Predict the 3D structure of the following.
Amino acid sequence: MIKQVLKMGNPSLLEKSLPITKEEFGSAELLRLIEDLVDTQRHYGGIGIAAPQIGVNKQIVIIEYYQKDITRYTDIGDCPLKVIINPKIIPIGEEESAMNEGCLSVPGLRGEVFRPTVIYYEYYDQYGNFFSGEDSSVFARVLQHECDHLNGILYPMRMRDISKLAFVDLN
Ligand code: NI
């Protein structure tokens, strides 16, 4: 079901999310919640969404994008649907890169955010299967943005130069 996306200013977006417990993995309630997140993200044309954005402060993230659907970025590649639960991220090395980020909770705006270029990640899927790896693609960028949501951080709070916050439509 398509849910309303909370917007910046809603205090709920600044809360820390709770991890999914062993008992919750594979439960009907969790699977329904994931369905809602997927429906909502696809409806609004996002490339990632985190549960707190629909008012559920739990550590669940959905990431899905296909280059053919995206005009705002070039060369981002494809990322088939990933359900990411209780994620952990560790930056690898000192290198950072800048990218103009957007967010369904900050509609109409984009802003330049620096983040570690290479990360190691760990997460579980909705059935409790464990995944880990290293990444330096757009997936690493989106995962860091979404994990920030789980810690109550919105991308403008990461910006070093607020003058680089801009409306997508400048007219
Ligand atoms: Ni976001």
